[in-house]
Amino acid sequence: MKNKIAFVAVGQAGGNIGQLFEQKGYNVLYINTSQEDLDTLEKAKFKYHIPNGEGCNKDRRKAKQLVIDDFDQIAAEIETKIKSELIFIIFASGGGTGSGAGPMLADLLIDDGKTIGAMTIIPNPEESVKSHMNSYECFSELTQIPGLASCFILDNNNGDKLELNSRFVEDFCSFLDIPEKHKSVKGNIDKAEIIETLKAHGMAVVTRQKAQESAEVIKAIHNTPFAPIEGDRAVKYITASLSGNVRMADLEKDLGTPIDTFQTFNDENTICCVSGLNYPQTRLDIVYNKVSENKEAIKKNLAATHESTMKKDVNFLEDLEPEKKPATEKKPFSRRNIMSKYL
Where is the signal peptide (predicted)? Predict the structure, then answer.
């Protein structure tokens, strides 16, 4: 699968996950507005610093503008460095560079005819209000991209973020290895079925569990590093290598009836990917509420940076300053529709 799937890691958090995939032998292109962040990726093969970027400090709009200004070169880097059937863009939803650039980059690459999925991260509830503002804005854009393939949404509320990253990459790579490592006279999963599973629009989860019974796997599916699955039983694919007494029918009974299932069997671990799920609205509502509950405090803090109690009837330099010319109105700058909707 290493010649069929590759990754574009955007921002620092994306880079952390990207390194784990590169260590597994997958092609990864690291993109960042911060040269300092890229310099920490000492063993990375492909790195690209967006010109004029010095980090975005959680400024999503700045990240978007930098990508717009340099998109042709970014697209060329992706085309030459990581040609693959399916590309996943990795980024944190609460940051600056990844949060701002991730959804727009996915949209633009889909418009260029590429098959693009996403891997992103929801901030821990204890993280800043700004992180939650960025996260909700990011998902507001991400969920509106109709051609997006599967979206894996890690939730930092589920534990230590580095441990969650590691567990996700291990489970995801185990899933990709199924066609080569898991063979059974009762049925097999081929590479095309893996790709088909990962192309499904909506949220996806993956888990690997040393289990003998279906109940253990079902529990693992609902206790993954990912955002919680909605209870609406909407699902497109369940693809699994089953072990012990684990049965696909039991998984369907819990998750819902998918459009199709792909299964094989092995004697060690059950590895399961569920895709075509609805986005985790219940979890995203918590993100929204965090911002909403602090709205008045945010307004107060913003106002405090502009208000002044200094006397306003003194202007010592007024007589010395030359007369200011009226500002000329800037002419609108036309860009492709996809870019314009992000600004």
Answer: none
